[in-house]
Amino acid sequence: MSNIILSRRRLIHSISLASLGLSTPLWLSGCAVDPITGKPTLMMLSEDDEVAIDQQQTPLQFSADYGVSQDAALNQYVSQLGRGIHARSHRPNMPYNYQVVNANYVNAYAFPGGSIAVTRGILLELESEAELAALLGHEIGHVTARHSAARMTQGMLAQAAVGTAVAGLGDSALGGAVGMVGQIGAGALLARYSRDNERQADQLGMDYMVLADHNPKGMVELMDMLRSLSSRKPNAIELMFSSHPMSDERYANVQAQYGGLSASVKSRSEGRERYMDMTARVRALKPAIEAMQEGERLLAQNEPTQAESRLLDAERLAPNDYTGLVLCGKFYLMQEREQRAVEYFDRARAAYPGEGQAIQYRGLAHLGLKQFGAAREDFLAYEAVLPGNPGTDFLIGYTHDQEGERPAAAQRYQAFLGRVQQGEQAEYAYARLAEWGYI
């Protein structure tokens, strides 16, 4: 038996976005033209690479954020607004798509190929169409300036240097784990932007929204809201500030850019009534969403009793809300009350058929119950809904492993290690394959 023990709790805590992986392209695009300045720049990902990475990773990220909103009218509204803005951008022909996701935290993010998401948490804090246009313009700015691609290029160069340093390790486990072919997961793609990136995205976002006939005051008001929220709800905005660093300089730059615009531009409608009408359904959930936010905050502070109370308050306020049901299921899973967790994940699946997260976590609950066959069925169902998550290979392999089915387990472990070479799961899979004589 392998001397690496993977406990149930550690398995559950390590299987979220940390398990997502995508092999770095082996081809290098080299020099490219900066779409903003028109000058040559070092870029190791082509536009096709950006789109391919985007298409592979966004379904997994959207599911991690509790799926795309089932409010079709709201999604259409955000998409229409986004299309009008990106049409005035430096890269209007990228395959942009816009989604509202069901996460409660306050954030928006963009993948390199043009997939842009806004959380329902941030929609509750915005007060006008102009503010939403500013938010979308900012994210479009990250896409047009190729900020993610530039960050990945830096990472690939760093990994190439590391690969050279460890080249003498040959075929050892460490040599296999560290090399020129690294891993890019959704978390890395959405990692922290630099202050320069943020400054440029702010400027581009305001330029684009002005060209699209929106009131640029929305950008100033967006910044005011974020600054205020950092003191009122610091937990809800923590992720946004980690990926989109705020600063007094950034705020001053936005005010200066706004101040230089004409009076006629500043007098445009901010679209407050239209925004309130289009977000009415999500606003009706505000008490439940705030209870969920509070429950998540209390859970992060290791106060499970109070967290459970707030999550159950949210359930009473919105008994069929998918996010709330999954959160309750996750809570009971973390408390090792797996059967109760299964009940919530079943209700979540009924509330949002076909969304993957409830299926995946139901499998984790069945693992905790040592019902390995049922867990495998869940993971296979999840794989059918959301292919491409290497963590699924590990989990399916683990269920075969626990039932003594070595060939089937080895096949899945090998598939997993083909894409993920670092972390606790990779160490466990490698040790099992070595113990069984496969490597």
Automatic annotation (TrEMBL):
The keyword DNA damage does not apply. Coiled coil: none annotated. Binds 1 zinc ion per subunit. One of its GO terms (molecular function) is metallopeptidase activity. The keyword Hydrolase applies. It comes from the Bacteria. It comes from Saccharospirillum mangrovi. SUPFAM superfamilies: TPR-like. This is M48 family metalloprotease. Residues 1-28 form the signal peptide. Its EC number is 3.4.24.-. Belongs to the peptidase M48 family. Keywords: Hydrolase, Metal-binding, Metalloprotease, Protease, Signal, Zinc. Its cofactor is Zn(2+). Residues 74-255 form the Peptidase M48 domain.
